[in-house]
Write a structure and sequence with these properties.
The chain has 20 helices and ten strands. A hairpin with a 3-residue loop joins β7 and β8. The longest helix has 55 residues.
């Protein structure tokens, strides 16, 4: 339902503007109308919000503490930020090391089979032989560093060294083992430190070690990293915890200030006074007036304005039942209602689950969908996206069970095979196609006619005479075609023929005249488009039959071969069919609703009512949209469009 809005003009002394905005923020019932172009949040306030949010986001949800003043907040942030930055850098370094070490170990492990004897020697045993080994991991995706390193080592050491490399994987590191006389080790280390040859992946702690010692050290370090990261996280939490509550309370206050600062720039200001214009719910105007009078007393005056003269930028406030909230969001996916539109949320909540049930129509599938939807509702908050999806699935599953009983289907033909009666007709039967197609066309005719009737009503209310004539003409054409089809195929009395032809002719003439000069061209095209809309509902039958026959295929495959293999194959195919049933019918039902139904009466293009204060958190459990975007925060779902009333 669309809630009527009215517009108020508030005038007062300029020094009391912030008090007036604070009172409106607490009510969350008034949207500020832009009189002048809104400015931006002051840069110092925006900077405080970003800095505070970045630190606060690192803490667990704390209890609310005292709000800090700007000076105290800056002092706190100046003290915390260097410590937090240091710990975050350390945690990032540990995370990078945890990601890189397994690749380095894998590359060096690939060398072990190539040099088994050398791979078993440790540093001490190599020293006794007068040798040294250097294990390297080179990031060489283009395979250019290894040949260059080989060339330079040959120039430096001649034939007095051995270099073995592992096979490179595409984009992966290359493991290298270099064995040389111990006396040459300083020269080789100097070569590895040049700009042309860069050691990658092996930190300095592993440099100069043998292959065996390097791999062992890396494995020890990899095992110790989770504890190191836990230590850093605990230290970070302990650093922020003493002020986390105050930061949380302060960020709420800062966002409120930022919202008021932007709203203040939308007011008409003089040297001494301010003027605000507000959209408020019509039934809440007295409450808004009283709140302003209580806060500002005689320093403010409120006047109710003529809404009809200022309806161009009027927002829309929707208030629907809780069970309809998911479908309200589905309406918003297309477009929010504009002024003069009908709120189609209730019709969407009624039609979409029915369409879904008509297409899927299986008792077992419906029961599984019901269980899945109920589980989602129990394990996610009501107003979360997943919780709302669960509510939609529950309704669709209930209608799927009902139509499954009408069709006599349970896992497709399995229910029919074991004697489950069809209360209406079985879709897989040889005579089912005609009644199924006629049923789909009947649904389409009813749905499109309902849309046209709503179009006639909205056009009459808004005094759009051309639209009214076009919709009325289309209704007459559909009535005439229905009468002719009834006489030809359904046994309607012959007396229906004359009024049906008359309705058809009059409807065509009215539809053509309503299109103006190009009516002879546009009128028939519009009528053909409406007729195509009705025929488009045949997809209800097509998608339903596809689901039925895929279930039949699953059952047929399940009877072939050994029992266990048949059960596995049938289960997989039924799971595939259920997955398709969860998505394809939903998309088709939305398509019918958005195009064939909404196209008859719904203009859209509106914007939601956004009252002052709705974007500011009132506490840790009610935080909503942020007044300013902050990359450090992920906000919960916004409240439904009807919540302020």
């Amino acid at each position: 339902m669309i809630v009527p809005l009215t517009q108020l003009e508030v005038a007062g002394l300029r020094p009391r503007l912030d008090d007036a905005l604070a009172a409106l923020q607490e009510l969350r019932l008034a949207e500020v109308v832009t009189i002048v172009d809104p400015g931006e949040t002051p840069s110092d306030l925006a900077d405080l919000i970003v800095r505070t949010d970045a630190v606060r986001a690192l803490a667990d949800q704390p209890a609310i503490g005292a709000v800090l003043g700007d000076a105290a907040l800056r002092t706190t942030l100046d003290h915390l930020e260097p410590q937090v930055a240091k710990l975050l850098a350390e945690e990032a370094e540990l995370r990078g090391e945890a990601e890189a070490l397994p690749r380095s170990i894998e590359a060096l492990d690939a060398l072990q089979p190539l040099v088994p004897e050398l791979g078993r020697l440790n540093d001490r045993q190599l020293a006794n032989l007068g040798l040294a080994s250097v294990a390297l991991v080179l990031d060489d995706p283009d395979l250019r560093i290894v040949p260059e390193l080989t060339r330079q080592l040959s120039e430096l050491l001649g034939r007095g060294h051995l270099m073995v490399t592992s096979a490179a994987t595409p984009g992966g590191p290359v493991g290298c083992l270099l064995v040389l006389r111990r006396a040459y080790l300083p020269d080789v280390n100097a070569l590895l430190g040049t700009e042309r040859i860069v050691e990658v992946g092996v930190p300095a702690a592993y440099a100069g070690k043998s292959l065996r010692a390097t791999v062992e050290a890396m494995r020890r370090r990899l095992a110790a990293l989770p504890g190191e990261r836990d230590r850093v996280r605990a230290q970070l939490a302990a650093t922020i915890k003493p002020v986390a509550g105050s930061l949380h309370a302060t960020i709420v206050a800062l966002r409120a200030r930022a919202e008021r600062a932007v709203a203040a720039t939308q007011a008409d200001l003089s040297s001494r006074t301010f003027t605000l214009r507000l959209w408020v719910p019509a039934k809440q105007t007295a409450r808004v007036e009283q709140a302003l009078a209580d806060r500002l007393g005689p320093a403010v005056a409120v006047e109710r304005l003529d809404t009809r003269a200022r309806a161009v930028d009027q927002p829309v406030l929707l208030r629907n039942r809780t069970s309809w909230q998911p479908f309200q969001q589905l309406v918003g996916l297309l477009s929010w209602p504009a002024r003069g539109d009908v709120d189609p949320t209730g019709l969407t909540a009624l039609a979409l689950p029915i369409f879904f049930g008509v297409m899927v129509g299986d008792v077992v599938y419906g029961a599984l969908l019901l269980g899945a939807g109920w589980w989602l509702r129990l394990h996610w908050p009501k107003r979360s996206t997943i919780g709302e999806v669960g509510r939609v699935i529950v309704l669709g599953g209930a209608w799927t069970v009902l139509f499954g009983l009408l069709y006599g289907e349970a896992l497709g033909s399995l229910g029919h095979s074991i004697g489950m009666p069809a209360l209406w007709f079985y879709r897989g039967g040889p005579t089912a196609l005609q009644p199924l197609l006629l049923f789909a066309l009947a649904i389409g005719l009813v749905h499109v006619v309902l849309g046209l009737l709503l179009g006639v009503w909205t056009a009459a209310r808004e005094h759009h005479h051309r639209h009214l004539a076009s919709k009325a003409g289309t209704l007459l054409v559909l009535a005439g075609l229905f009468g002719l089809a009834g006489v030809a195929a359904a046994g309607f009395p012959a007396q229906v023929l004359t009024p049906a032809v008359a309705a058809l002719v009059v409807g065509v003439v009215v539809a053509c005249v309503s299109q103006g000069a190009l009516g002879l061209l546009l009128g028939p095209l519009d009528l053909l488009g409406t007729l195509g809309n009705v025929l488009s509902y045949l997809r209800l039958a097509a998608v339903g039959l596809a689901s039925t026959y895929l279930a039949e295929v699953a059952n047929q495959l399940g009877t072939r071969g050994p029992l266990l293999l048949g059960l596995v194959v049938a289960t997989l195919f039924h799971a595939l069919n259920l997955a398709l049933a969860a998505f394809s019918p939903t998309i088709q039902a939305l398509r019918l609703h958005y195009v064939e139904f909404f196209g008859q009466f719904y203009e859209g293009g509106g914007r939601l009512f956004a009252p002052l204060g709705s974007s500011v958190a009132r506490g840790p459990e009610s935080e909503s949209l942020t007044a300013l975007p902050s990359p450090a925060l992920t906000s919960p779902e916004p409240a439904p469009a009807g919540s302020p009333v």
